[in-house]
Amino acid sequence: MSRLQCLTMATALILLQALSSVSSTILSRADRITRLPGQPRVGFQQYSGYVTIDDKKQRALFYYLAEAETKPISKPLVLWLNGGPGCSSLGVGAFSENGPFRPKGSVLVRNLHSWNQEANMLYLETPVGVGFSYATESSSYEGVNDKITAKDNLVFLQKWFLKFPQYLNRSLFITGESYAGHYVPQLAQLMIQYNKKHNLFNLKGIAIGNPVMEFATDFNSRAEYFWSHGLISDPTYKMFTSYCNYSRYVSEYYRGSVSSMCTKVMSQVSIETSRFVNKYDVTLDVCIPSVLSQSKVVNPQPQQVGETVDVCVEDETVNYLNRRDVQKALHARLVGTRKWAVCSNVLDYEVLDVEVPTINIVGSLVKAGVPVLVYSGDQDSVIPLTGSRTLVKRLAEELGLRTTVPYRVWFAGQQVGGWTQVYGNTLAFATVRGAAHEVPFSQPARALVLFKAFLGGRPLPEDF
User: Fold this and answer.
1) Catalytic residue chosen out of the listed positions 146, 182, 380, 442
2) Within 13 Å, how many C-alpha atoms sit on residue 211's CB side?
3) What 3-state class would DSSP assign to 398?
4) What is the separation of C-alpha 6 from the centre of its chain, rounded to a whole number of angstroms?
5) Which of 181, 205, 179, 209 is nearest to 192 (CA)?
6) Long-range contacts of 232-237 (CB under 8 A, 24+ apart)
7) φ and ψ at 146, to 5 degrees?
8) Is 437 a known active-site residue?
9) Residues of 313-352 as b/e, b for ≥16 C-beta within 10 angstroms?
10) How high is the pLDDT of residue 297?
11) Which of 19, 144, 200, 281 is the most exposed place for a label (fewest CB within 10 A)?
12) Which residue stretches of the chain have pLDDT < 50?
């Protein structure tokens, strides 16, 4: 985006802010959802549709907004991003994790722990090629990387505010999980840079769950997690840490040259951990639908000959979002593909971007005064809590932050919700007890307590 375009955008936003009461009605009216098929009656407004981020190449990102259940005008705006890269924030985040509804057969049922109880929730399918987001030229799906995605997400927000100027001065939080450990900090960094000239975004904090922040630390914590949970033997643990750790395997895998040693080690790890244990939740004794398998990047597992992916049950979300009446209600359309999918099968993402650390960007956000929460479901072996905990502690030491909340339990209801530690006034780490890779799905009540405390800038409850 050129300097002239930036100035034009900023001027437009200022004018729209002054006329927000009129403009918001006009610009967002077309995106208002009257009612989703099978939806129970609710008192809050919903919107969905497209924001064109590139007029020349006709690249458009799809969003879904669920306004707060009560007093939306006084509640913050929260942007949610799922990971992958290439997986849907609509299908995973909104309809499986923390959105207001969950598909069940032909209808929608209320999520009693929806995050729109506390905030106006904005879900973005990013980058183009994911979910209902599209480009008219297939070349736009090639060579997509973190840098492109971050810039596109920034442009999306700028233009989204043109539709919804009533949110311009609202407190804004960015949240997400998994590969959003790349998406969220990179977007926040661009927003801070943009604010130096235009002061557009009222960014109040970021929260990332089971995030990829530093390739080697995150991935290599898997071996200790497997061993400590009894999933692998002592000899295999030694091989997994001495001869071929997980970061080396992933690096070789995505370069198309897996060594014989790594092949041997990973084969033994796979045999012992068993394909009947879901790596996103190692204690779950029932299988998880494919809608929750967000990432092929963070968990590459070559299939054996004859092996098929067992999704266990009918994928409610995929079926629901592929209904024509649902797509019509959402103002969505399929471009260049016949079917909506949880994770994109047309996007060619630069997977080696996973090796580029973002923990340094997280550090720059903390230094800029942006509150950061890193939280981990403690049953996830894909991005284990041990790696995230190590990275947060190391960052606190590098920034010279003292502990303000010593490591302790926190409560949700009358049960221990997890453990937490806070450094300074801006950096916090928390675990969510019994939660998987997708924390709001696996422990919705505890996730809502975590979310509410994060928005309020308060420590997690230390009693019940």
Assistant:
1) 380
2) 32
3) helix
4) 27
5) 205
6) 232/269, 232/272, 232/273, 233/272, 236/265, 236/268, 236/269, 236/272
7) -60, -40
8) yes
9) eebbbbebbeeeebbebbbbeeeeeeebbbbbebbebbbe
10) 53
11) 19
12) 2-4, 7, 18-23, 286, 290-295, 303-314
**97, 89, 136, 62: which is closest to 342 by C-alpha?**
89
Amino acid at 342: V
Q: Catalytic: which of 20, 88, 133, 178?
A: 178
Six token digits for residue 90? 């609509």
CB 225 within 8 Å of CB 384: yes
Q: Quickly list H helices, 199-314.
A: 215-228, 234-242, 246-253, 260-273
Residues whose CB falls within 8 Å of the CB of residue 76, separated by 6 or more in sequence, listed in order = 119, 120, 170, 171, 172, 173, 204, 455
User: How are beta strands 101-104 and 107-110 bridged, if at all?
Assistant: antiparallel
Quote the tokens at residue 210: 């089971």
Helices (H), 19-145: 20-28
Beta pairing, strands 203-209 & 172-177? parallel
Would you call 376 a catalytic residue per the annotation? no
Asked whether the beta carbons of 450 and 460 are under 8 A apart, the reply is yes
Active site residue 229: no
Indicate the burial class of 263 (C-beta count within 10 angstroms; 0-12, 13-18, 19 or more). Answer: middle
Three-state secondary structure call for residue 212: coil
Q: Phi and psi of 43, rounded to 5°?
A: -105, 5
Domains in the chain, CATH or no CATH each: 1-216+318-464 (3.40.50.1820), 217-317 (no CATH)
pLDDT of residue 78: 98
Token reading at 283: 């204690």
Measured between alpha carbons, how far is 181 from 356 in angstroms, rounded to an integer? 11
Cβ neighbors of 388 (< 8 A, separation 6 or more) are 210, 211, 213, 218, 374, 376, 429
Position 26: which residue type? Answer: I
Bridge partner list, 46: 66
Catalytic residue among 20, 295, 437, 442: 437
**What pLDDT does residue 312 have?**
36
One-letter amino acid at 379 equals Q
